Amino acid sequence: MNQPIEQAGNPSDGRPTFQERLRVERERLGMSQEAFGMLGGVSKASQWMYEQGRHWPTTEYLESLRQHRVDVGYLATGIRQDTETLRHALGFVLKLARQEGRSFSDEQLVSVFLAVIEAASGVTRPDLGDRNAASGTEVTQGGGR
Question: Which of 116, 6, 20 shows the shortest CA–CA distance to 59?
């Protein structure tokens, strides 16, 4: 049985959750769930499930939305981003997933995408810094190690 996705937002700071942002962005564009789902390559039922928080969208879905000028950075963070930053962030995540030579869950890929967008926006994640220091992994500009 699928569990609802974790609220990708912080209700205590007033930011809407991921599923709320997805609905807001769809409505901002004046689209039905069916039409918006078609942009992402999914059915109306899948779009509804995403907006209800019952399933995570795939990175392919997010990439397809981005190609149709949907603000996927806003979906991920609740902050409107410039499209160049988003293009690079999503490209980085997809490249990283392919390079690792193993499969990642949609939830893991969305989480990485969110972290990359936050880093590009200047949001720091001390928990990731500790993990990187412990593993000896150094992340440099351009994605090198």
Answer: 116
CA atoms within 13 A on the CB side of 88: 13
pLDDT tens column, 66-99: 888 888 888 888 877 666 676 777 777 778 777 8
Domain that holds residue 33: 11-135
- Cα angle 17, 25, 90 (rounded to 5 degrees) comes to 80
Count: domains in the chain:
1
Q: Are 81 and 123 in contact (CB under 8 A)?
A: no
Residue with tokens 């190690």: 145
Sign of CA dihedral 36, 50, 59, 114: positive
Instruction: Check: pTM over 0.85? Answer yes or no.
Output: no
Q: What is the pLDDT of residues 39-50, one digit of tens each?
A: 999 999 999 999
Which tokens hold the place of 103?
A: 């499969």
| The length of the chain, given as a count of residues | 145
CATH of the domain at 131: 1.10.260.40
Distance separating alpha carbons of residues 103 and 94, to the nearest angstrom:
11
